[in-house]
Amino acid sequence: MFGTCVLSINCHTSNLSVSIGQLNEASMLKGRNKSLVTDLVYHEVFTKHEMSFGHPESPERLRTAMTYIKNAGYLEDSRLNLLTPVPANMDEVYKIHGKSYLDSIKEKSSRGGGFYTLDTSVNAYTYEAAIIAAGGGIEAVDRIMAGKTSNAFVLCRPPGHHAEYDRAFGFCFINNIAVAANHLIQNCGISRVMIIDYDAHHGNGTQNTFYSSNQVLYVGLHQDGRTLFPGSGFPDEMGTGPGFGYTVNLAMYPGAGDLSYELAFTDVIEPLADIFKPEFILVSVGFDCHHQDPLTSLGLTTSGIAMINTRIKKIAVTHASEKLAYFLEGGYNLDSMGMGSLNVLEELMRVPITEFSDLYTESASCIEYTKALIERTRKTAPLLSEVIE
Ligand SMILES: [Zn+2]
Predict the structure, then answer these.
(1) Which CATH superfamily is domain 23-388 in?
(2) Under 8 Å between Cβ of 323 and 278
(3) C-alpha to C-alpha distance for 153 and 325, rounded to whole angstroms
(4) How many angstroms does the Cα of residue 209 sit away from the middle of ligand 1?
């Protein structure tokens, strides 16, 4: 059942939400997460979508992630539920993408393939994989809302955060996280969704979907668009109309690493969450922020990415009864994909985080740039500046 939210306790029940609001976070979490299970949303068709030989957005990315997870023993762990998703109800997807555009993906796939741009193309499985990825996201958030699972990692391909209303772009076709966020707001009684996108590339499609909404706070942490595709995500992109202030972009300097991201969470992202008070946290995770990624120039280590996940989980516990779902976007170094995916799952499952020894030291000038960027953001981001004044 995907057309409406399956639940209950948190949906459509204002009287109950008032009484829940009087409880502390710990008791909310305890009451909601009876099973303490994490959903890993995965389907074999995600590995059948392939764009061209040698393309960095390859099926091997998911195979490597699953190998790391399997080798750690989690596929047999009762705290993990391996969820095989089904295709999205297309009415949900039509709210985010035009029907004629979606039909064009279907048509190209049925013909065996076709191109949108030089680096973004379709094969015979792309349409099926894309609508199942979107369906997996909807099912994941529905199950979290219903208390059937604690949280979720949608380990999917193709990724989604660059996909626009009527345009495939940057290896993306259907914006999975946007479909899920819209579903939460339209069908589940959720009023405030915080999307944290820490893929190295700016999530232009997600930002544009909710640019005039004050129900979705989009926070993008990415490499500065002057130095990386898609060339957007600048600090002056803040939303429009009622959505003004509900888009916040931190365009990080190339080389920004663990300390820069730690500062960003302490001084911008956590204060934003305290003001916005999200009811559900969605994460676009891209392991291309890792220093070994071949397409980007950021400087995070695996332990730095794990730190980000811990900070996000803390926000989810503090504000949203830990209602938290991760959606895979990019990441093109296979080891980084494997290590990062394993660590995301471990954070969600509340098990010890496997430590990896990759090292990277960001420069002092990079840290100074980040500090200046944060200071400017605290003064100019409408939600933050109203509080600071
Ligand atoms: Zn990316």
Answers:
(1) Histone deacetylase domain (3.40.800.20)
(2) no
(3) 6
(4) 18
Q: CB under 8 Å, gap of 24 or more: what pairs does 97-104 form?
A: 97/163, 97/165, 97/166, 97/174, 97/175, 98/165, 98/166, 100/166, 101/165, 101/166, 101/167, 101/168, 102/174
pLDDT for the residue numbered 36: 87
Structural domain spans, the chain: 23-388
As a whole number, mean pLDDT of residues 292-301 equals 98
Cα distance between the two ends of the chain: 47
Give the per-residue pLDDT at 5. 56
Token output for 132:
């199942």
Could you tell me if 196 and 319 are in contact, meaning their C-beta atoms sit under 8 angstroms apart? Answer: no
* Centre of ligand 1 from the C-alpha of residue 285, in Å: 9
The catalytic site residues sit at 162
Quick check: helix, strand or coil at residue 147? coil
- pLDDT over threshold 60, residue 15: no
Taking only the tens place, the pLDDT of each residue in 194-253 is 999 999 999 999 999 999 999 999 999 999 999 999 999 999 999 999 999 999 999 999
Output the CA 201–ligand 1 centroid distance in Å: 4
Instruction: Provide the pLDDT for residue 35.
Output: 59
Handedness of CA 364, 365, 367, 371 (dihedral sign): positive
What is the 331 CA–ligand 1 centroid distance (Å)?
6
Buried/exposed 258-295: b ≥16 CB within 10 Å, e otherwise: bbbbebbbebbbbbbbeebebbbbbbbbbbbbbbbbeb
Residue 193 bridge partners (DSSP): 216, 280
Res 359 pLDDT > 90 = yes
CA 105–ligand 1 middle distance (angstroms):
21
